[in-house]
Amino acid sequence: MKPRYLVLAIACLAAFAAPNLGGAQEQRPPVSQCQAIAQTIPKVTFASFSGAPPLMPAVSEGEDVKLTFLGHSTFEIETPSGIVIATDYNGWYRPATMPDVVTMNKAHSTHFTLTPDPGIKHVLHGWSDVPGEKANINLVVGDAYIRNVTTDIRFSYGLGGAHENGNSIFIFEIAGLCIGHLGHLHYELTDAHYTEIGRLDIVMVPVDGGLTMGADSMSRVIKRLRSSLILPMHRRGPPVEAFVSMFGKDFDVANAPDDSITVSMRTLPKKPLIYVLKGVQ
Q1: Taking a C-beta distance cutoff of 8 angstroms, is the pair 266, 62 a contact?
Q2: Beta-ladder partners of 255
Q3: pLDDT tens digit string along 246-269?
Q4: How far is CA 17 from its chain centroid?
Q5: Residues 6+ apart with CB under 8 A from 209
Q6: Residue 133, φ and ψ in degrees, nearest 5
Q7: pLDDT at position 30, please?
């Protein structure tokens, strides 16, 4: 074989043998630890997370997550590594420190703001501005994986009437815990919704008794989810007791002495607990 052909053949062999560097650098989407059936999850956007994780950021049992009720349907969630998340953020109820992530829904203006502080790195809308499309959120920030499940809303104050997929149930997978925020839920969930949501160890549930759903309908959702810790929110008008009265002996009920709770996989209640944080009563 002539030298120039020999060089060409070696180059071709080398090209076939070389690793696919582009593919090796792609980060695989995390697999939800909370979904009942975790199959195909859309590609995720990785933020402030290095490496190419096979599943999720590493966590260990016993790591604490702190949840603080700030007002209406806004909770501050603080992860073990210090990531701060604010739910249904409207700019009025703010964590003491700048949140890294805020989630929003659009049923009315107490659940969102179109002018959030520019210092907030991740602003997640629970709706899509493209007609006919769903909001699709898969985001890893530090030790938190955030995804959403969309539901319909029957009205939107100041933003028009019914909106298909206008609300998002945000799910936060942190330190092995599956934490859900139901947002402004207007309709009872379908089997498809429950499958997409999967397991929720902790759920934040609106208990207004009408602006979202009646106490009986909302209680059916909570009974089906069978979460270990139920945190009421979004109370307007009726007392929390109207919601609590829908539950029997299979659920414990307690009023918290303050506005926050720290919980881990290890400290989850063994029996479902409706825990009314200070400020919700």
Answers
A1: yes
A2: 276
A3: 999 999 999 999 999 999 999 999
A4: 43
A5: 215, 237, 238, 242, 243
A6: -105, 160
A7: 72
